[in-house]
Design goal:
CATH architecture of one domain: Up-down Bundle
CATH topology of one domain: Butyryl-CoA Dehydrogenase, subunit A, domain 3
Number of strands: 0
Structural class: mainly alpha
Radius of gyration: 18 Å
Order of helices and strands: HHHHHHH
């Protein structure tokens, strides 16, 4: 059964509204910041969910951007560990796994550099540091996408599992990039 486009929009609107209402009811100090920051993210529900439940301090836009990068980094590391445990059924699949593991490793490095840069923002070098952070997170997104390229035209359980996990990482990484771009616009260092 196919849902009409207007039905999908209505369902999405209801889900986002419900999520926003639940988060707004939360009296934690960061609830308003998370809501206002995540509402226009690429994946607002994921942004709200991951950052509302984040245990670290998120009282400023800078804290929130760092938290988003930490979430992305944590998920990328989990996928990296998962990929290291997989065994393939064919040489082609094994090659795709090795390449994917390398790409995810590069993403972990890029996200680690981004987090370090965000932790040391200074007024005199803010623009340069933000450019670095944006470049590294964009590269991490590209690496995550490139990982899946090796599995094209394969219909295996490994491909399905890797794709699901990589999409999850890519979504939180995309939200992290959005919050970094937002931080760049507000210049909170």
């Amino acid at each position: 059964m196919q849902i009409p486009t207007t039905g999908l929009i209505l369902i999405f609107t209801i889900l986002v509204s419900t999520t926003l209402a639940i988060a707004a009811a939360d009296k934690t100090p960061n609830a308003d910041l998370v809501l206002t920051s995540c509402v226009h993210a690429s994946f607002p529900q994921i942004c709200i969910h991951t950052l509302s439940s984040y245990t670290g301090s998120t009282t400023t836009p800078r804290d929130l951007a760092q938290a988003a990068v930490r979430v992305s980094l944590g998920r990328a590391r989990k996928v990296q560990t998962y990929l290291g445990t997989l065994k393939s059924q064919s040489k082609r699949e094994q090659s795709a796994l090795v390449d994917c593991l390398e790409q995810v490793g590069d993403s972990v490095d890029d996200l680690s550099k981004t987090l370090s840069e965000l932790q040391h923002l200074r007024p005199g070098t803010f623009r340069w540091q933000m450019s670095n952070a944006q470049t590294w997170v964009s590269a991490a997104l590209t690496n995550e996408d490139t990982c899946l390229d090796g599995f094209k035209e394969m219909e295996t359980t490994v491909r399905v599992d890797v794709k699901r996990k990589m999409i999850n990482v890519a979504r939180v990484t995309s939200n992290a990039l959005y919050l970094i771009n937002r931080l760049d616009q507000t210049r909170h260092y």
